[in-house]
């Protein structure tokens, strides 16, 4: 049985993983075991260099127990920063909608969401953010079952701020880690302009997809992932 560690995106609370879990169910149907790793399982108010050093130490301990590592958005940023753990290239790494560095386009949008959260406008922030995440398709709902608004605001602010403050250019220029990276053809957040690809990586642009590539075009993504992981 293959064990996969999935580093989650910046979710306002971990219960929001349900749609992602559904999108990855094709792996479970093939006998894979998936563990979801919340970026906020380990979080302190520290500088980026310390934050990623702590994550590298944690992933170094986890690495022998897993057969593959997936990273979505913020989770992918964390995984990128730990690429030197995977230089041997023996274990599949898959990134989804993960920026190397935020450009003006992405910075403007994420800064807008952060500013709304800083004003306490959590639901306005979520509506705007998820409208961009769902694009080019219509936002499916505007009701969010938040258990703790203060915690959700903190998660959104700190997670999105980390994404904006993290520049993985040097990592991506030097890495020999083997990985594949899916981005949506019509993504309204992370685009090809945000991404630097080393020779060891393969960037796949998913047709008719936004940020939610597994949801928007499962037929394109699933077979590639299964061939790569299994």
Q: How many domain modules?
A: 1
CATH class: Alpha Beta
Query: Which shape, going by the Cα principal axes?
Result: globular
Q: What's the helical proportion of residues?
A: 40-55%
Briefly, what is this?
The protein is an alpha/beta fold. The protein starts with a strand and ends with a helix.
Tell me what you see in this structure:
The protein is α/β, with parallel strands linked by helices and 230 residues long. It has one domain: Rossmann fold (3-Layer(aba) Sandwich), CATH 3.40.50.1820. The chain is built from 10 helices and 6 strands; from the N terminus they run E-H-H-E-H-E-H-E-H-H-H-H-E-E-H-H. Strands 2-1-3-4-5-6 form a 6-stranded parallel beta sheet, with helices on both faces. The chain starts with a strand and ends with a helix.
Give a quick set of tags describing it.
six-stranded parallel β-sheet; 10 helices; globular; alpha/beta; Rossmann fold; 230 residues
Please render the helix and strand layout as text.
Layout: E1 3-7, H1 18-23, H2 25-28, E2 33-37, H3 48-62, E3 68-72, H4 74-81, E4 93-96, H5 104-118, H6 122-134, H7 149-165, H8 169-174, E5 179-184, E6 201-206, H9 213-216, H10 218-229
Parallel strand pairs: 1-2, 1-3, 3-4, 4-5, 5-6
Helix pairs in contact: 5-6, 5-7
